[in-house]
Amino acid sequence: MMQYESAKAVFADWGVDTEAALAKLAEIPISMHCWQGDDVVGFEQKSGSSGGGIQATGSHPGRARTPDELRADLEFSYGMIPGNHRLNLHACYLDTDQNPDRDEIEYGHFASWVDWAKEQRLGLDFNPTFFAHAKADDNLTLSHPDQGIRDFWIEHGKRSRDIAAQMGAALGSPVVNNIWVPDGYKDTPVDRMASRVRLEQSLDAIRALKHDKAQMLDAVESKLFGIGVEACTVGSHEFYMGYAIRNETLLCLDMGHFHPTENVADKLSSVALSLDEILLHVSRPMRWDSDHVILLDDAILQMAQELVSANLLDRTHIGLDFFDATISRTAAWVIGTRNMQKALLQALLAPWDELKRAESRLDFTTRFMATEEIKDLPYGAVWSEFCARMEVATGKALIADLARYQKKVEARG
Ligand SMILES: C[C@H](O)[C@H](O)[C@@H](O)C(=O)CO
Ligand SMILES: [Mn+2]
């Protein structure tokens, strides 16, 4: 507390109100992805061989194998993260004794998740699952040349939107329904246009039915390449950017889905001029879309800075997308999500007016000196205060709690 009071005075000297920053941070929900808890396996009773070019590596003990185990791990993890958040579910995480194929899923198969979300005061987000299925083994789904395969996936897409809308109605909070398909070609295709026309037509068919935006929001996610689709990804950035603008959907920017030298934070202000809302998949690519757990590193700090500086927090849905099976899965969730929050807090504690004034008069020296000096400000004390107010642990106590829970789940084998 004393440390916080002294930090508060230091920030006040820079013209920054720490109380306002803490209040804003408490309002920002992060959509935590269910698939970190079980290495993107899901709970279907059957699955195909196609991984869609994504891969969780590692064999750390304690993987959640059932919806109940996953919910227990999530409850523990949310308990370690300050604030109220959301869960991002994939369609392959259905909870039912039945064995519906992807084109047969219904709201009832996910009702237990909604009941649980209500109990836990969590929002939900949703994703159709266009991978890990025999009908995705060609690495083509919505753009497949075979009409029958396209129709199968279109039906899956329609049902997912419907399920998402019902979830949103039940929870009183719009569910973002994000479409990502693995479609692409290992070697250079000769008719890219035909694939993209088919993908566009399939997306239009999926979205033919209008849903209330208070219940469900459509999002589309682009990608640069994946394993097995190195030569061409049908749903490229340009494809989906155009699609999202023309159709007024959200555009999902996954930080692992661009060339490693691109700065994804730089894209926010550009796409925000043409889109109402944005979805983020905050991730950490290492050499490729490796989905490492996010660190409090420059890429994440810059993303948070852009969200605050460009005033985009109210129209950006912050989702996470990483999966690491070499470390405790619950620790990955907790530390990764808290890193996103720490980055947001640092951004909320920056003296933006002063920095922007310096830039607008081309005083780059002042901008340079200030952006470097504020790196020394006592962010840790403000973060600790936030955690104390939200009654969650920090530092060694947090590490001990995470280790204790990991020990408990290791008995699962
Ligand atoms: C499991 C997710 O849908 C997936 O990670 C997708 O969002 C993606 O980023 C694929 O590379
Ligand atoms: Mn993603």
TrEMBL record:
SUPFAM superfamilies: Xylose isomerase-like
Superkingdom, taxonomy of origin: Bacteria
Entries under InterPro entries matching the protein: L-rhamnose_isomerase, Rhamnose_isomerase, Xyl_isomerase-like_sf
Region of interest (Disordered), residue spans: 45-65
Note on cofactor: Binds 1 Mn(2+) ion per subunit.
Cellular-component GO terms for this entry: cytoplasm
EC number: 5.3.1.14
Subcellular location: Cytoplasm
Cofactor(s) recorded in Swiss-Prot or TrEMBL: Mn(2+)
GO terms classed as biological process: L-lyxose metabolic process; rhamnose catabolic process
Catalytic activity: L-rhamnopyranose = L-rhamnulose
Keyword tags: Cytoplasm, Isomerase, Manganese, Metal-binding, Rhamnose metabolism
The UniProt record lists the keyword Transcription regulation: no
Entry's Gene Ontology molecular function annotations: L-rhamnose isomerase activity; manganese ion binding
Record pathway: Carbohydrate degradation; L-rhamnose degradation; glycerone phosphate from L-rhamnose: step 1/3
Main location: cytoplasm
Binding site residues for Mn(2+): 257, 289, 291
Keyword flag Amino-acid biosynthesis: no
HAMAP family assigned: RhaA
Similarity-based family: Belongs to the rhamnose isomerase family.
Function: Catalyzes the interconversion of L-rhamnose and L-rhamnulose.
Protein name: L-rhamnose isomerase
Organism expressing this protein natively: Harenicola maris
Lineage: Bacteria, Pseudomonadati, Pseudomonadota, Alphaproteobacteria, Rhodobacterales
